[in-house]
Design a protein that fits this description.
Shape: globular
Strand content: under 5%
Number of helices: 12
Number of strands: 0
Order of helices and strands: HHHHHHHHHHHH
Radius of gyration: 19 Å
Low-confidence stretches: none
Mean pLDDT: 90
Largest sheet: none
Length: 301
């Protein structure tokens, strides 16, 4: 069991007792507390994309920011005209990104093996999340006219079949990598244990809580740890304070921008519901972030 799995397990225990003590947590409280944790940990883990990129590639700042913001703008336009396809693309993109951050240290004989593992592991994660919370997601998206169309993704027989398929594929590729000695036995058992914990988390808790617990502990904090270790490997005097100073400028800018845009949505100045606006904000930021992190992982030293 690695450090992140241990932290996740502790949080799971603590949250379970809190959840039982208060006989559940109201939706408004789930959204409030989850938003706070995502803003505090989720946004910072992508706040130094520009620094990581310039560590790996040579490019003018003007060109980098032009490309970065252009990707955001293009995806935003795509969302406005093709929300369903945009949502599906976001799910696949997130799946690959989640899988890559989980196994960035794994050395396989061929890159194709790694890429297959990344996408299968990530899709397994998202399908499990939807499978255990399909009814909740259906009810939630039904409240807003601009999210009703997403209900087609949560149809039970599709998700049930996908749940079985991707969990089998995920177990199969992990077993293959272990059997072919591309993954050691202790890592294999650790990953199986983690998958079991994720199943338990998504089964026990509502969608928002389950996803936030995964996203904050197993993804955002893990990625920030990878970033910190990279800088530490380049400069032994690099400290946590230095790291926080690097994160702060773009983190604060992103937090205030996000809050402002959501306020515009809440006041109906933007003709999109708050949930859809939130989804679009997260997805358009994820696209360039995932690309930068792919470059970071591929060229990592």
């Amino acid at each position: 069991m690695n450090l992140f799995t241990f932290i996740f397990l502790i949080c799971l225990y603590a949250l379970f007792f809190i959840y039982q003590a208060f006989s559940g947590i109201e939706l408004e409280q789930q959204i409030l507390y989850s938003s706070i944790f995502i803003l505090l940990f989720g946004i910072p883990h992508g706040a130094i994309d520009h620094i990581l990129f310039f560590k790996k590639r040579k490019m003018s700042q003007l060109k980098f920011y032009t490309l970065y913001l252009s990707l955001i703008l293009l995806f935003l336009i795509f969302w406005l005209y093709q929300p369903m396809w945009s949502f599906l693309f976001f799910l696949v993109l997130s799946a690959f990104h989640f899988g890559q951050s989980q196994f960035e240290d794994l050395k396989t004989k061929k890159t194709i093996y790694s890429n297959i593992l990344f996408i299968i592991w990530g899709l397994t994660l998202l399908v499990n999340l939807i499978f255990y919370n399909a009814n909740e997601l259906n009810n939630f998206t039904a409240f807003f006219d601009d999210t009703v169309s997403f209900q087609s993704i949560y149809k039970h027989h599709y998700i049930r079949n996908s749940f079985i398929l991707f969990n089998l594929l995920n177990a199969g590729i992990l077993t293959y990598l272990m059997a072919s000695k591309q993954m050691i036995w202790s890592r294999f058992t650790s990953e199986i244990f983690l998958i079991a914990l994720i199943h338990l988390t998504f089964y026990l808790f509502p969608f928002i809580i389950g996803f936030t617990l995964y996203f904050v502990v197993l993804h955002s904090i893990r990625v920030m740890s990878q970033e910190f270790n990279y800088f530490k490997s380049e400069d032994s005097t690099f400290s946590l304070l230095h790291f926080l100073k690097l994160l702060m400028p773009h983190t604060l800018l992103s937090i205030f921008s996000t809050i402002f845009i959501l306020w515009l949505s809440y006041k109906e100045i933007i003709p999109l519901s708050v949930p859809l606006t939130s989804l679009i904000i997260i997805s358009v930021i994820t696209l360039p972030h995932a690309i930068v992190m792919h470059i970071f992982y591929q060229r990592k030293v």
